[in-house]
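Below is a filled-in request sheet from our internal design queue. Each sheet records the structural input a requester submitted and the sequence that came back. We keep these sheets so that new team members can see what a complete request looks like end to end.

REQUESTER: design group, bay 2
PRIORITY: normal
MODE: inverse folding
CHAIN LENGTH: 415
BACKBONE (tokenized):
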């Protein structure tokens, strides 16, 4: 028999499902129902609004529990590493996506969207998410959980051109096909492709057969974009391939990005041509991956942006899973399989006397005056969000822990 305490820094559970998945991808967010079933199990306890490293240390947890699993992901944006990256109105995707998804860490990001042109650096699904949020109409976004301040800012934006830039070509782009196809179905935005970038036949010996089939579907979809008429549409989403950013232009605020044109060799490696091109932009969002950070002086690999571990084991009785373990790549399903492997290792290595676990933690948090939010209390907050939803929308999110707890206390007082 095993008991598990799930400790979460935020009041709300579900991590990137709530704060990272695009607001117009409600079907993807439904996976949270599976996690709700887990958190409803009598052997599992949810402790929201508890921050490891602030309210309790990893060392203290190891003294209380038989094993500790770290699963706090990779919440920090990778740096582009070019001049001008720190200009005003340049943002990483974690920050920008967190802003429009209502993550409390980014509620005050305040991007200036009074722009004509936006550049998104990266050609993966997150780049597509950002492009859709900038390009979709008020009607299209009315059935999402885009938070009100972001809805107001994006719908008021006069942006006409959104550029997605990739160092390599359409064959190497990391889109999944379902998400890519959406770009040809936008009400008021047309995809723009350079037909010369689309190969007649894909030759990529450096790819697996499976990857090659997926990329062939992507190229076929991008070829179909050539037939999408821009007539009657106010916005353009440009797919800019073979462009490597070398400098972000501007004085105090971003004015554009300078890119070197590239080619891709037979091994899929990028080769610069020396030819430069400037693309105007008044806002830039980099979608180039993310990295973890160390807490409580955990051993950390700066090169990979992960906690040092051996197949998930950090040290005696301490484990890491997901993006914290192996870097920010893969889907929810990838992380599930990854976690299963680590849990098998954890169970095989369990030894010694049982520790007090939850009892010790409860005493510790009570002594520190931490207002813990239980899963039952989260369910009340969840219900309040759903009840407050505008017509057609799935919910209206609370943003900060203080807002959530105030609403929770009021609901509990009302019975």
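RETURNED SEQUENCE:
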């Amino acid at each position: 028999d095993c008991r598990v305490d799930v400790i979460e820094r935020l009041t709300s559970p579900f991590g990137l499902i709530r704060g990272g998945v695009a607001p117009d991808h409600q079907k993807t967010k439904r996976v949270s129902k599976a996690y709700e079933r887990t958190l409803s199990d009598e052997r599992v306890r949810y402790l929201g609004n508890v921050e490891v490293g602030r309210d309790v240390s990893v060392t203290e947890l190891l003294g209380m529990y038989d094993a500790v699993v770290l699963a706090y992901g990779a919440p920090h944006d990778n740096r582009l590493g070019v001049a001008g990256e720190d200009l005003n109105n340049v943002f990483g995707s974690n920050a920008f996506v967190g802003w429009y998804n209502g993550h409390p860490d980014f509620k005050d990001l305040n991007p200036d969207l009074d722009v004509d042109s936006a550049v998104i650096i990266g050609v993966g699904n997150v780049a597509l998410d950002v492009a859709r949020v900038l390009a979709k109409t008020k009607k299209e976004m009315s059935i999402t959980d885009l938070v009100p301040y972001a809805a107001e800012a994006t719908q008021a934006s006069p942006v006409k051109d959104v550029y997605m830039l990739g160092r390599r070509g359409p064959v190497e782009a990391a889109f999944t096909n379902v998400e890519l196809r959406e770009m040809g179905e936008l009400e008021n935005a047309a995809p723009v492709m350079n037909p010369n970038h689309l190969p007649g036949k894909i030759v990529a010996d450096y790819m697996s057969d499976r990857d090659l089939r997926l990329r062939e579907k992507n190229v076929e979809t991008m070829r179909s974009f050539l037939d999408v008429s821009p007539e009657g549409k106010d916005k353009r989403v440009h797919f800019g391939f073979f462009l490597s950013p070398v400098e972000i232009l501007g004085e105090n605020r971003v004015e554009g990005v300078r890119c070197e044109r590239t080619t891709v060799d037979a091994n899929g490696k990028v080769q610069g041509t020396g030819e430069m091109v400037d693309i105007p932009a008044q806002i830039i969002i980099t979608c180039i991956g993310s990295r973890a950070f160390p807490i409580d002086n955990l051993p950390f690999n700066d090169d990979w942006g992960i906690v040092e571990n051996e197949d998930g084991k950090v040290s005696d009785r301490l484990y890491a899973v997901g993006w914290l373990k192996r870097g920010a790549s893969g889907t929810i399903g990838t992380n599930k399989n990854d976690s299963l492997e680590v849990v098998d290792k954890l169970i095989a290595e369990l030894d010694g006397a049982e520790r007090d676990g939850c009892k010790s933690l409860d005493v510790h948090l009570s002594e520190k005056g931490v207002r813990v939010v239980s899963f039952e209390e989260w369910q009340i907050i969840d219900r309040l969000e759903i009840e407050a939803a505008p017509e057609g929308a799935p919910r209206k999110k609370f943003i900060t822990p203080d807002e959530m707890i105030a609403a929770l206390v009021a609901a509990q007082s009302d019975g």
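SHEET NOTES:
- The CA atoms of residues 177 and 217 lie 7 Å apart.
- The radius of gyration is 23 Å.
FILED BY: M.R.
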